[in-house]
Amino acid sequence: MSFCSFFGGEVFKDHFKPGIYVCSKCDHRLFSSHSKYEHSSPWPAFTETIQEDSVSKHEERPGAYKVRCGKCGNGLGHEFVNDGPTKGLSRF
Question: Which positions fall inside the MsrB domain (predicted)?
Answer without folding.
Answer: 1-92
